[in-house]
Amino acid sequence: MIDAVAIARAALADPGLARHRIDPQVRQVRVLVNLRQNLTDQRVALTNRVLAAVHIELDHRLGQGALATRAKVGRVRALVEGAGLDEMVRWALLEQLEEIHTLFVRAAEVERRLKELVEPLAPNLLGIRGVGVVWAAVLLAQVGDVSRFATSARMARWAGSAPIPVFSSGRDRHRLHRGGNRQVNRALHSIGVVQVRLGEPAREFVRSREGAKGTKGAYRALKRHLVDVVYRAMVADQVVRGRAEVCLQPAT
């Protein structure tokens, strides 16, 4: 129901939006992205249960990041093994920790396969600072055929990264767009955070707008700028893929 309403709103907001198309390689990326997300959701849910169980059984409160990596899972396993727990309680906790470790391993394998698919498909996209294999895969999977967006502004509106003007306030201001594709929006936000942390240009971009827009408004402006950058990269990558497909076609 929610998806149907979102589709209807998108169609009303932009009647000229082209039909979504996706090539076979990008479809494979989408399948792997969905699998990775499912594994991550399972791991997060199980992690929360184990953190609560350790707190109850060992009277030991672990931080939220205590099971965030395979190495940390190993440390918690050692803690459980060394605790004076009943045999079945220890066994149950160790079984769940082993499952968390397995989910990490399975997700890593998915990411390895994603890397094999994404690197040839999106070299320009991967060249953007802050865009790793996972976020590039998410963008490819969600956007599909980037040519369906005539401009980067249309892609920004679709992604929910174009701030909405507020006219009732009596002054020129914008508010956050809470619609759009939330996966792409999250990817853009994460890319922006990495760029601000590591790159002086993005840091200066945010700093120069904080006075007038506030910190949140400055980050919204950065996300809107990133849509332009991502859009150009994806268009360039798709052009290269199109040329490669033409070259691979048998002569008639």
Describe the protein in words.
The protein has two domains: 22-120; 122-252, no CATH class. Helices cover 73% and strands 2% of the residues. The protein contains nine helices and two strands; from the N terminus they run H-H-H-H-H-H-H-E-E-H-H. Strand 1 and strand 2 form a beta hairpin. Helix 3 (70-82) runs antiparallel to helix 4 and helix 6 (133-143) runs antiparallel to helix 8 (182-198). The mean pLDDT is 86.
List key phrases describing it.
252 residues; mainly alpha; 2 domains; two-stranded antiparallel sheet; globular; Transpos_IS110; Transposase; transposase activity; DNA binding; Transposase_20
Gyration radius (Cα, Å) is 22 Å
Q: What is the strand content? A: under 5%
Low-confidence stretches: none
> What is the helix tally?
9
Counted beta strands? 2
